[in-house]
Amino acid sequence: MATAVSTVAGEDGHRMQDLSQMIPGPILLLGAPGVGKGTQAKELVKLWGIPQISTGDLLRANVKNGTELGKMANEIMQKGQLVPDTLVNEMVALRLTDPDVKRGFILDGFPRTLVQADWLDERLAKKSGAPAGIQPDSLANTPAGSLPVVAVSIQVDYTQLLRRITGRRNCPVCQTIYNIYLQPPKVDGICDVEGAALVQRSDDTEKCFEGRMLTYQSLTAPVVEHYRALSRFAEVNGDQSVADVAAGIVSSVERLRG
Ligand code: AP5
To answer: Quick check: helix, strand or coil at residue 105?
Structure first.
């Protein structure tokens, strides 16, 4: 069981947490392209001090660094398809050996297929061994390691998702996420924090978005149903302010961990 979480009202009226007492454990953020998984993961990192593990970000880092995985993944990502399960699972397994996961972690964009979900469930239940050459994950023998995964699915309708995807811009230095329609920077095209020129992801076109949505419906929507059936699951309306969505996720995790 997670340590009890006490809640207090923050200055902005949203519920804030006495975070020092919280062991968040493993948390999955599920949802279609553009629902706000990355935006919300960054909010939860600030609240709970546990890492965001985004398979999309890890793959883009491989693309940028020109690794063999990156060369192969790039073409697949541009088509809105999924990188093979084995490769993504190995990438996540390696990340889970980092010591920063000991109080928990936020998986953003993983699992995305039932094969990935089964792998993760087994891995976290310690039923499967680590792949050859990879150590057991760093949750082993920690309080967070005994907590079951909780999954939160964020919901936003198709028209809004398209606007979010085509309007998204990122800071290449601090990774802050903006949206030219919905969350613009103070100065057009420039990061508020770093002053760097914002960039657009190459898969954030309307055409690629359509492919990503088809992939989501056929391969990832069943993952949502998988976790719904396991009961440690909540749905949050993503068509609200970032703070309100975050408050919904926090209260869902608190309830599921209670
Ligand atoms: P990935 O990077 O995971 O992309 P995705 O799942 O399509 O999700 P996004 O990152 O596009 O959206 P998001 O939900 O994080 O939204 P965000 O917070 O940025 O994956 C990319 C590719 O990598 C995949 O297509 C696949 O090829 C491959 N891949 C990744 N994981 C894989 C896996 N497990 N297996 C196999 N292949 C894998 O927000 C979007 C926009 O909305 C932003 O502009 C933001 O400012 C705005 N916004 C967010 N919240 C709000 C709000 N409340 N109000 C107003 N605007 C908001």
So the answer is: strand
Of all atoms in ligand 1, which is nearest to the CA of residue 81?
A: 27
Question: 157-194: b or e for each residue (b if 16 or more CB lie within 10 Å)?
Answer: eeeebbbbbbbbbbbeeeebbbbbeebebeeeebbeee
pLDDT, residue 144, reads 80
Find the 3 Cα to ligand 1 centroid distance in Å. 31
Q: Over the stretch 117-156, which tens digit does the pLDDT of each residue have?
A: 999 999 888 644 555 555 677 777 787 888 899 999 999 9
Q: Are strands 168-170 and 177-179 parallel, antiparallel or unpaired?
A: antiparallel
Exposure class string for 1-15: b at 16+ Cβ within 10 A, else e? ebeebeeeeeeeeee
Predicted TM-score (pTM) of this structure: 0.90
Two tokens, residue 146: 């005994």
